[in-house]
Automatic annotation (TrEMBL):
It comes from the Archaea. Residues 67-156 form the Methyltransferase domain. One of its GO terms (biological process) is methylation. Keywords: Methyltransferase, Transferase. It comes from Methanoculleus bourgensis. InterPro entries: CFA/CMAS (IPR050723), Methyltransf_25 (IPR041698), SAM-dependent_MTases_sf (IPR029063). This is Class I SAM-dependent methyltransferase. GO terms for molecular function: methyltransferase activity.
Length: 281
């Protein structure tokens, strides 16, 4: 087999499925069903406002723009964007995320945001969307096993550009899993697909996108180590006292004091990929 023979969509799917099996959390949207979890995600985003501002500042939005935000979460981008453009459609399947997004939009006085409560894979553009959109975007929400089909649908929904945001290399939160998974579960942690595979999927589709890479700090704050253990214990599938001790010892060595809080921070490489839809039709 040569490089040209590789089916990069299959590579993406294989890495996606191995990561999902390792985490034991099923589909990505399933972990955000609770309002509590969704609200915590929104609060985390507010702790790292530079990511949101960086994305919005890099979009060619105008007051008359129509924007489609796929995997919108609690509205971290959809709500502030709605305050600057004509209309925004947010696609978000998780009930908790939708509830928090609606509350966030109400707080900000946003009335031009519509929400489609479906997975992107299940969206029928003709029936569910009010397109086409000047900008179609998926911000760190590419937890889709068939990424090629998902991208093809994005292209069809856009009359201007498609923007994808994803990760390169090992993320801050993955590093802890890589460090602890063998001791916790007796096997190596399987990382999900990154931007290298995504690029090759796009190239195989005849799309040569623009790429922008930035290093950003990701910070989590906790009132005490017990709160950190409780949070990461869920992510790391901690079930036994021995596993909890291992996690606690690890976090004790990683957390640093910052005022009254304990902080865990690190640098993660984030990548913006975008193209004109004329290049994928």
């Amino acid at each position: 087999m040569t490089y040209r023979d590789i089916d990069w969509n299959t590579v993406w799917k294989d890495l996606y499925e191995k990561n999902a099996e390792c985490r034991g959390s099923g589909e990505c949207a399933s972990i955000w069903e609770s309002r509590e979890k969704a609200l915590d995600f929104l609060n985390q985003s507010r702790e790292n406002p530079e990511r949101i501002q960086h994305i919005i500042d890099g979009l060619p939005i105008r007051v008359e723009s129509a924007v489609l935000d796929i995997g919108a979460g609690p509205g971290t981008l959809a709500v502030p964007l709605a305050g600057r453009v004509a209309r925004v459609t947010a696609v978000e399947p998780a009930a908790g995320m939708v509830e928090v997004m609606e509350e966030y939009a109400a707080e900000e006085g946003v009335s031009n945001l519509s929400i489609v409560r479906k997975r992107w894979e299940d969206v029928d553009p003709a029936a569910d969307l009010n397109g086409p959109y000047d900008i179609v975007m998926a911000s760190y929400s590419l937890g889709m096993p068939d990424i090629r089909t998902a991208i093809e649908k994005m292209c069809k929904a856009s009359s201007g550009r498609v923007y994808l945001f994803w990760f390169a290399g090992t993320t801050t939160w993955e590093q802890g899993m890589l460090d602890l998974w063998p001791g916790l579960h007796g096997k190596e942690y399987q990382r999900g697909p990154k931007v290298d595979v995504l690029w090759n999927v796009l190239y195989a589709m005849g799309i040569c996108p623009n790429v922008e890479t930035v290093r950003m700090e990701h910070t989590r704050r906790f009132p005490d180590i017990d709160a950190a253990v409780a949070e990461y214990g869920k992510q790391y599938r901690v079930r036994t006292p021995a596993q909890e001790r291992m996690l606690r010892d690890y976090l004790a060595g990683m957390l640093s004091e910052n005022g009254d809080d304990l902080v865990l921070s690190g640098m993660t490489t984030r990548v913006k990929i975008w193209w004109e839809v004329d290049g994928c039709r």
